[in-house]
Every structure is written in C-alpha cells, then in structure tokens.
Amino acid sequence: MASEMNLALLLVRVVVGVTLALHGVNKVRGGLAGTGRWFTGIGFRWGYPNAIVAATFEIGGGLFFALGLLTPLAGAAIVGLMVVALITSHWQVGFFVFRPNQGIEYVLVLAAAAIAVGTIGPGEWSLDKAFGIVESGYQATWWGLVLSAAVGVAGALGQLAACWKPPTGALQWGSATKKKP
C-alpha cells in the first residue's frame, strides 16, 4: 500500500507543480511587460511588479511542489495564486473552464490538490523526506493544512487588499457570461 500512496502523491505533485511552473515560464517567455499590462487592465496597481511576483511564485512554487520540497509552503504559494486568479479573473465567468475567459474549474482543482497534498504530505519519494523535513513521508497533519490553505488564502487576500481595485461587476458570479443589453 505504501508504494501506491507514494506513486499517487508523486503523480499529483509532478502534474500540478509542473503545470503551474510552465504557466509561469509562459508569462516570462511571452514578456512580463505584456503580462504587467494585463494585470493593470484587470485592476491591479503596479502591474509589472505583480507580473514578476506571479511568475516567480508560479515557477518556484510549482517546482518546489513537484519536487516535494517545503511542500506545505509550496502548496500555500499555489493556493495564493489560485485564489487571486479565481477572484480577479475567473469568478465572473462562472464555473466551467470552456467558457470564454475561463471559469473557476481549473484554479479550483489546482488549489484543492495543493491543499490536499500540503495536508497529507509529499510522500516518501520527495525532497522533504530525503532532507528529513518530514518524519513520515505522507503523514497527515493539521499544520500542513494550516500552512497550505490558511497561509495561501491569507497571502492572496493581502495581495488583493494592497494591489487590486476590482472593476465594476468583477465580483458578481457569472457576470461575464450574461448577455449585456
């Protein structure tokens, strides 16, 4: 049973972590200046610095998560990013990712996976285990839940409070998919 659990945790960590890291790499390759303008366009002050922070957290948090290194904190980085994305870009579209501008489906799944792995632990096949950061590779702890979920959400809300002024209607569920008169 232990091998199956470790394989499952490795699979989730690698898929979620590499997916997010590649998302950050795409921001860098596409030009952080353009990403900064997009951030400004959705209501962020200091669009370019926020683009740098987002790309850094996506690449760093994603790679740390994939490697199982400081896993609850890497999970918190993912949760924070996904909460910011959910509130600023996806909430007003609704649930489904196939809608124009994409709904919350994608960000919800990544955040949930980050919280789950942050809570359970990275598994035996992780750098946390290799470096002795976790005593048991997949031992569930409340601290993992608090670090991955609460720290992630608190970081996101802090960033939003400091840097984001929502455009009119941005916080209305599904408002972007409703027909305008």
Mean pLDDT, rounded to whole units?
90
Distance between the termini: 58 Å
What characterizes the major β-sheet? none
> What is the chain-wise order of helices and strands?
HHHHHHH
Estimate the global geometry from the Cα principal axes.
Answer: globular
Counting structural domains, the number is: 1
Tell how many strands the DSSP assignment holds: 0
Count of helical stretches: 7
What percent of the residues sit in helical stretches (DSSP H or I)? 55-70%
Uncertain runs are none
Q: Give the percentage of residues in beta strands.
A: under 5%
User: What structural class do you assign from the helix and strand content?
Assistant: mainly alpha
What is the radius of gyration?
Answer: 17 Å
Summarize this entry quickly.
With 181 residues, the chain is mostly helical. Helices cover 67% and strands 0% of the residues. It has seven helices and no strands.
Account of the 3D structure:
With 181 residues, this protein is mainly alpha-helical. It has one domain. Helices cover 67% and strands 0% of the residues. The chain contains seven helices and no strands. The longest helix has 29 residues. It starts with a helix and ends in an 18-residue tail after the last helix.
Which terms summarize this structure?
67% helix, mainly alpha, 181 residues, globular
What's the topology here?
Layout: H1 2-30, H2 32-41, H3 47-67, H4 71-90, H5 105-120, H6 127-130, H7 142-163
Helix pairs in contact: 1-3, 1-5, 2-3, 3-4, 4-5, 4-7, 5-7
